[in-house]
Amino acid sequence: MTLLDGWAYAFGKFGRLDGRARRTEYFSLYLLQVFWYFAVLLTRPLAFSEVAVALILLASGLVFVVPSISVTVRRLHDAGLSGWFTILFFVPFGAFVLFLMALIPPQPAGDRYGPDPREDGAEWS
Fold first, then answer.
1. Is the alpha carbon torsion for 87, 89, 94, 96 positive or negative?
2. Helix runs in 43-119, H state only
3. Residue among 115, 89, 121, 95 at smallest CA distance from 20
């Protein structure tokens, strides 16, 4: 799976909390967010006003929030963990703990969250 495939899968499964997500899908979405926010902040001196930059950041945050939550839940499923661990975002250092959880290798196929997405026959719908 390439970086572009990861973005396509993350936005294609917009809001779906069932199933599993590869590590590539998870990290490609967050890498896209980092690139986007740095691009906006680097062009800040060229902006007409700070309000315009703030509105762009707010709008992009709203665009990314649902895919980020859904890909995090599906990534936790792939690691064999409950999606409820996503609540750790609201705890100090919880995002770092979630990052470490996202590094856990996937569980074998046939667990309660669906087939292994790395297998050729696995569905991506």
1. positive
2. 50-78, 94-102
3. 115
Taken in order 53, 56, 59, 65, is the CA torsion positive or negative?
Answer: negative
Q: What is the DSSP letter of 119?
A: S
- Segment 88-107, tens digit of pLDDT: 988 989 989 999 999 888 87
DSSP 11-47: HHTTT--SS---HHHHHHHHHHHHHHHHHHHHTGGGS
> What value, to the nearest 5°, has the Cα angle with vertex 8 and ends 98 and 15?
55
| Token pair 């762009």 in the structure block, residue | 56
- Is the entire prediction scored with pTM above 0.70? yes
Q: What digits encode the pLDDT tens for the residues 26-74?
A: 888 889 889 988 988 888 777 778 888 888 889 988 988 888 899 999 9
For the chain, what is the mean pLDDT?
82
Residue type, 75: R
